[in-house]
Amino acid sequence: MQLPNDVDLEHNLNDAFQKIFGSCEEFIRKGSGWVLKRVIKLEIHVANYSSVGGSSFIPTPVTFARHKTLINIVNDDDKCFLWFVLAFLYPSTFLPQRVSNYTQYENDLDMTGMSYPTPVSQISKFERQNQISVNVFGYEDKDIFPMYVTKMRESQHHVNLLFLREEEKSHYCLIRDLNTFLSRTKKNKSHFCHFCLQGFTRHDLLEEHIKNCSRHDPQHVEMPDDDNCLLKFEDYRKQMKAPFVIYADFEAYVQPLDTCERDSNSSSTTKTARFEPCGFGYQVVCMDDKYTNSPVIYRGTDVTKTFLQRLLEEKSKIKDILNQAKPMVLTPEEQIEFEKSNQCHICGKHFTEKSKRVRDHCHLTGKFRGAAHDYCNLKYKYPQYVPVIVHNLRGYDSHLICQSIGLFKDQDINCIPNNAEKYISYSLGNLRFIDSFQFMPNSLETLTGNLAETSFKQFSKEFSITEKKLLLRKGVYPYKYIDCEAKFAETELPSLGCIYSNLRKCDITEEDHEYAQKV
Question: Do residues 218 and 134 make contact, with C-beta atoms less than 8 angstroms apart?
Answer without folding.
Answer: no
